[in-house]
Specification:
The protein has 3 helices and 11 strands. By secondary structure, the chain is of the alpha+beta class.
């Protein structure tokens, strides 16, 4: 049985943040998985394929390329390629770090400093699906780097803006936890309790890049979840 029995597994027009002939950006809800896993739950890429096929009347289905991922309990903007040309070029842009991703995270513990750069070496345990951070290189580790800044304080919580330089599994979650500020709801990385909705307060807020085909700037914002908690931070600087 799914851990998210109340989640709607259908993509609609209101979930589309950006679309043209080559790309489509979707508002990913916390709980949606990007690609099929062993839970058997419907994946976001299959939902988007169905949406495109129905919208543009493609009886043989639609092409869709996955170019990056978000952890299941994370919300926000996620980008897909609608053509093989766009997929190849976007994959290259991610590899060469030409995609600027911005995340917002909410924490309870005040960070030891208000802004800075974090560098760790991460090792993922695939069986337990957990990542460990080290302050020095160890066997099998990958270097992880991010910039962060505290945007403000509200009702006992701190809002942090994160700009990852690298894209490692669970990177933001484990690096903020190592800073002493685990993300609200993320009991896997040290927050004292999980969310009843099985989400964490990490949101892919913004994605900026040069369009791989049109060669024009693209700037995509994802609104915060309307859940009675995240909404309170919508007034902070975008």
């Amino acid at each position: 049985m799914s851990e998210y029995p109340d989640l709607n597994y259908t993509v609609t027009d209101k979930d589309v943040l950006y679309e043209d002939n080559h790309l489509i950006a979707i508002y990913k809800k916390a709980g949606w998985i990007v690609q099929v896993d062993d839970t058997g739950d419907l994946s976001l890429d299959d939902m988007v394929k169905k949406y495109i096929a129905e919208k543009y009347q493609k009886p043989n289905g639609a092409f869709l390329g996955v170019v990056h991922r978000l952890d299941r309990p994370v919300s926000g903007v996620i980008l897909f390629a609608k053509t093989s040309k766009a997929l190849d070029r976007i994959n290259k842009m991610f590899k060469e770090r030409q995609m600027h991703k911005t995340y917002w995270a909410v924490v309870r513990q005040k960070p030891s400093k208000m802004e800075g750069t974090l560098v760790h070496w991460l090792v993922k345990n695939p069986k337990k699906n957990i990542t460990t951070a080290y302050d020095h290189e160890v066997k099998g580790s990958q270097r992880a780097e991010l910039n962060f800044k505290v945007l403000g304080f509200l009702d006992g919580y701190y809002l942090i803006e994160v700009d990852p330089i690298t894209g490692r599994p669970h990177q933001i979650r484990v690096q903020l936890a190592t800073l002493g500020s685990p993300i609200v709801g993320d009991n896997k990385y040290g927050y004292p309790r999980g969310s009843r909705k099985k989400s964490i307060c990490l949101h892919a807020r913004r994605l900026q890049f040069i369009h791989p085909v049109k060669n024009e700037p693209v700037d995509i914002f994802a609104p915060l979840p309307k859940d009675g908690f995240w909404d309170k931070f919508e007034s902070f600087n975008k």
